[in-house]
Please model this.
Amino acid sequence: MVGKIISVVNRKGGVGKTTLSIALGKAFVSEFAQSVALVDLDPQGTASQVLMRDNDYANLLRREQQGPLGTTTNISLVTLMKSEETVFDGMMSRCRYGMVHNITGRADVNFDLYPIQDEFWEFEYEEFRENQGQELDSKIARMLTTLTNTGDPRRRDWVIIDCPPGFTRSSRAALMASDMILCPFTPDEISVLGIPSFNSALKKLNRESGTNKRCYWICNRYRNQGNSSARWLRYAVENHADLLLRAGGLAETSENMDPLQSAYPIFQDSAQVQNNMSVEAPMTLQQTFGNVNANQIVSIAKTIKTEIEQNG
Ligand SMILES: Nc1ncnc2c1ncn2[C@@H]1O[C@H](COP(=O)(O)OP(=O)(O)O)[C@@H](O)[C@H]1O
Ligand SMILES: [Mg+2]
Model:
């Protein structure tokens, strides 16, 4: 089977794109024993920092800044995308950072990371200035084709793309190659009001590209008590029901759950955050990412699988 591509995207920052990308990847690996490649397309490199062991990320940055690179060291998407067409394939293998032991400790499932670094912002801008970004588009498409191509040793069941905020040249290329576009939003006014504007931008992109991609919105950072989560989730459902990810009877239910949540799966704020446990001792990025609600993410992963199997 050809691997499936999911882009996790929103114009807004801080809505949980990275959290959802990582948690979803982990769920595919540990719950379904499927393989995952996570492509970090956000030059802020949050996923890369969180997922790379010890000083590996810092070392990668230092080496790339020092250049020229040897032939055995890991590279980031910046070096990969700069590389000549003829060596691109080999460079892709050097960009691959295998993390199976971090994720499950099992040898029969794989979680690969394709890291990025800050310099990608500038590189992308230069690419656009020089050739309207066409070369970058085709390299991203080539990379995603390789990662999903049956028979290629780097092929994974799922390719998850952690997109940057906004609607950048590279994220457009990723969206156009995706089987599913997943947009996390937080239950607050600004985030919810961004739903239709993103949708219009996607429609425009569809018109330009002759495609028909839709996006699936999912509520993240829902809180059961003491804020207006329920109100903004309801508002989103009332105004944009057709854009929201629908559960299909698979959502986790519990006593204090809003009935809407069984129809539209949500991703709650982790218990640690809801209980303010992070206030006394600030959590590291790794801890925060490790503390999300496992049952909910598994139910979201199942919903996504079903949706893609039915419609793609
Ligand atoms: N479900 C969640 N529970 C607890 N904290 C979360 C959750 N989702 C996101 N966060 C926190 O919110 C912040 C922003 O999330 P992040 O995934 O980095 O957003 P984005 O990638 O959209 O910028 C991070 O500090 C992250 O740990
Ligand atoms: Mg992010």
